[in-house]
Amino acid sequence: MSRDPKTLRSRTWFDSLEYYSFARRAYLRSEGLTRESFHGKPVIGICNSWSELNHCNIHLRTVAEAVKRGVWQAGGFPLEFPTISLGEVFMKPTTMLFRNLMAMDVEESIRANPLDGVVLLCGCDKTTPAQLMGAASADIPSIFVTGGPMLSGQYRGKEIGSGTDMRKLFDLYRTGELSEEGLMEVEACSARSNGHCMVMGTASTMASIVEALGMTLPGGAAIPAPDSRRLSFAEQCGRRIVDMVWEDLRPSHVMTRQALENAVTVDMAIGGSTNAVVHLLAIAGRLGIELTLEDFHNISKRTPFLANLRPSGAYLMEDFCYAGGIPAVMKQLLPLLHRESITVTGKSVAANVAESECFNEDVIRSFSTALAPEGGTLVLNGNLAPRGALIKHTAASPHLLQHRGPAYVFDNYYKMLEELNRDDLPVDENTVLVLKNGGPHGAPGFPEWGHIPMPKVLLKLGIKDCVRISDSRMSGTSFGAVVLHITPESAIGGPLAAVQTGDEIVLDCAARRIDVNLPQEEIERRLAAFVRPAPKYNRGYGKMFLDHVTQADLGCDFDFLRAVPCGTVTPE
Hints:
This protein is α/β, with parallel strands linked by helices. The chain has 21 helices and 14 strands. The chain folds into 3 domains: about 40-150 and about 195-355, Rossmann fold (3-Layer(aba) Sandwich); about 155-190, no CATH class; about 380-535, Glucose Oxidase, domain 1 (3-Layer(bba) Sandwich). Helix 5 (about 95-110) packs parallel to helix 6 (about 125-140) and helix 7 packs antiparallel against helix 8.
């Protein structure tokens, strides 16, 4: 392994013949650094998505200090820099509107600065995929440190998970079964530390995918954010990135087609968030790798569901960490994985997990005790979703996975929220709730509107689930018989735009189909009369988003950022 400073990317910033090389060295000296601090050393950027508007990432300043220790120990020179941070519960209309913007910020910050390697600090739902996308496009040696989950919530002697159990308790409040005081108690104890959601929601899923891709050191995904091992892990990653620079080990060497297939396999085994599908499709597009919904379908069919975690199971991320985390899952999955795929350790997947153990076989199941024979996400097609849709069948009521019933259609999300609290809403347990205009163009931004709240009239009857379909996403903490990501979306004239209240909807998960029971000629007649809504933005980033965002089956990235042809943003 060569350690010749002349090979460093940063050398062209600091050691060229131009005046600005001298000026750059002088300005580093203005920060109180001696020349020995940086001369001839790999410059390691620490890409920090810390923000007080992002509770999931609020501890990343402390994590950055631990990374710096590791970089100094290994003979590198660390420089921390900020990027946009996407706080999932604070940003409107949705963080997904800004994922691509953050990815651009990460990519260009890396590309424009004298960095030889980068450590990316993330945690909240969209910060992780945005940084993966940016790192993939910049393609200099990179390693990830995710922020870790919160400690388990505690409510009246029971463990509760943010998002998942909070939704259930909020429904009790809507029906009067939980008092205002009780709701305030839940508010105070459900999210009791820094870190991201402690169920297998999107943040935990994407942290797990970072590990499955090989873009972080083994074992990091599930360590709770306040656990001292989180800082020890960050320090180790700081040391490792320096060697990665000398080895010239880049994201394009790690995030291969085989690594993406490994990540999809792990996602299916852990019952990961449906959002992982759209993010992995976007990451693949940045790498120039053709990954399709058919690949997810084929991998799901062969992969058992092993992680007994909410919202699809019983346990929380703390339990998962103590049971062995992602290394224990991957060891179980080795027969299904590309074992020789190289990771940021410089070693193969098989070598990384060879000594891993499972310490709780109820949390992390074996193939013989799997929770389900197939993965946690099903890909659907049908006349409503010619380019695909998703359902997290492991978190749905089993009796609804084969269902037909009349549609009740909502065209506007905010009006829908008002209607769902009506005591006279004309729905029953057979009704299929349909939300239009929730996709990348329609909302806009592809928000998490797909977990349509249960109508109050049904909750009062003790009905906790019904079939709900939309062209939106849902939080990975959500649950229920919810069909999502219907593509093409309704706002650009996809078949969902043709559905009217009273039409029969047929969900057949066994056949992997979602259909409206109408003749094709009638669907086409209705779509011929469809008028596309006026664009929500006419300037700025919003207009750029609408002009260039792809549909869900292509990852909702911008067409000009993909490394492979991306097709069209309108129905074919």
